[in-house]
Structures are given as C-alpha cells and as structure tokens.
Amino acid sequence: MSYAVASALQTAVYHHLLADAAVAALVGTDIYDAIPTGTLPTTYVTLGPELARDKSDMTGAGAQHEFTVSVHTSAAGFGVAKDAAAAICDALVDADLVLSRGHLVALNFYKAQTLRESTGERRIDLKFRARVDDN
C-alpha cells in the first residue's frame, strides 16, 4: 500500500473546489482544512476525515481514499447546504485532477448524510472515493 499520494490528492481537491465557479458562487473561498478561529461565515466547507485502503497490484502501489467534504451552514433549513453540496458533487465527480505525486484513476461520489447540530447549524457530509496510483 502507498499512502504517499494522500497529501497530493487533498491539495488537488482543495484547489479544484476553490477554482470551481459554481462552488465559489455559493461559498466563495470559505473552504478549510482546519476551521479558523473567530467568526465563521454563514456557509463554509471543510475537508474532513479520510480512510485509505490498499489497492496495490503487480503494476505498482495504489490506494483507494474515502474522504469527506462537509458543508456547514447556519442558514435556516437545508436548502443552502444542499445547493452547495450539489455544486461540490458536480465539481468533483469524475474530475480530471492533476496530482503533484501519483495520478488519479477515478473519483466518485459514495454517499451523503445530512445532520442538524445541537447549535442549530446544518451540516452535510459528502463522502467520495478516489482511486490513486503512486508512480
């Protein structure tokens, strides 16, 4: 197994979301790996947990990364969050990401979960699966 492509994958996902016009129209540049201190925007996106599994074969090292992108909002209802989640899915599914190490074989939507936090915030956790090779 190789986890060596993990950072390159996260960086590519982050920059791809920042560059996507539909995502930017809904959340601007409020996409975070670590939530900043201070007052947060009404709607923002976080890059979250990841699970990697070995997918190496006789041709080389590889892995499947299951990663989470979360939409957070304090707006009433789930509408704003669902619109942002849809834009993120549109941007990432089958995206042709260029990685600084290795290469992306496939990027697919896996599942989503909507949550209402005790603070009143709404959150949608989007899970994606990326198959990467380290060459």
Automatic annotation (TrEMBL):
Record Gene3D superfamilies: 3.30.2000.30
Protein's name according to its UniProt entry: Gene transfer agent protein
Source organism of this protein record: Thalassovita litoralis
